[in-house]
Amino acid sequence: MGKAQKSQADILEKLNIKKLNEMQVKAQEAIQSESDVILLSPTGTGKTLAFLLPIIEQLDEDCEEIQILILVPSRELAIQINQVIREMGTGFKTNAFYGGKSGSKDKMDLKHRPAILVGTPGRIADHMRRHTFTSEFIKTLVLDEFDKSLEVGFEKEMKDIISSLFNLEKRILTSATQGVEVPHFVRLKNPKTINFLKEGSTKLTLKSVLSPEKDKLETLAATLAHLGNKSGIVFCNFKDSIQRVSDFLETKNIPHGCFYGGMDQIDRERTLMKFRNGTHRLIIATDLAARGIDVPELNFIIHYQLPNRKEEFTHRNGRTARMNTNGTALIIHWKNEPLPDFIPAIEEEVLTDRPMPTIPDWKTIFISGGRKDKISKGDIAGICFKKGDLKPTDLGVIELKDDCAFIAVRAKKAIPLIQKLNNTHLKKRKIRVNIV
Length: 436
Fold this sequence. Notes:
By secondary structure, the protein is an alpha/beta fold. The protein is 33% helix and 21% strand.
């Protein structure tokens, strides 16, 4: 087998990681020595890097076909893992296939086969039915958050995909859930289990907030004021509920994003991006946001509506109190509404009378140039400082995509920056610049 073009030390340096955590070290040792591995670890502990490092080491540089298949339950997780692989800078091609992405784009990506293919079961199964690529050289299969894929109804697709992989040598399953049964069709043989779910020093504070009225919107507003200028997710069960909460928050002048299954992919991505760069501190979401989304540490989550099952309750709570930090989960419920059996007796949070959270001091700006135009983050920062007259403190997070970029800019500098940069040239490319 050929080795990756960059050593693990090079990759970690590129990712600005000084050393792997204990879970990542144990996972790497198991994946290098065992055929089948089950990796159980809380959300946010670095499972993606834990499985990517050892499997990329085993890639054959001389093979021009897909060698690793990573199946994930959501588009967001596919995009996130694909991005991590690219940031590792290994020299191996990677692509992400998922519903909502154009089939013609997949076709173009397959003209030069990726070594690593990340995708949702529905889209990958469709490609396999149409024989758009060969599975002959796929030696490693990763089922990331595999229990979630089964929950969202991908069992048939996963079964079809796995039955088509005749030359598998390694299977890696990851989850943040304890005690999930692995279906027989995965064909695991004496798997090595690495279980870090019971470890860690995170502390989750779980409390209830009683609403005097059955309509809990005003109580939600009071809760957000009580929490102050912190970042979090408000969980609802339905798209209609999200819309109602969103409309209400608009009247209170509270910036926020929405995140649910019926949204266009680009809108979901922009919600997460604005959250990451500080344009808003709040997301109103369904359980789609309970796992596999790339957002920074959350100070709190709020159950505006409770899920029907304990597992989803646990995964929602897992978005906060991650990676050895503390977090808060609040349940807003009507005073006459009994809590489900899966919620223990909990203390009531007494709300303090405070002003509404302040509006974040950042805006998100779109720039119509990206990696394909040989544009770097340094190029973008440079033009913002030189032509845009920004100071370093005026420029926030820069997210660089293949064909565009998004930057966080101090709100008062956003319009002047657009006026100075729109229709100018960056790396010989004329760029459009506007506010998102």
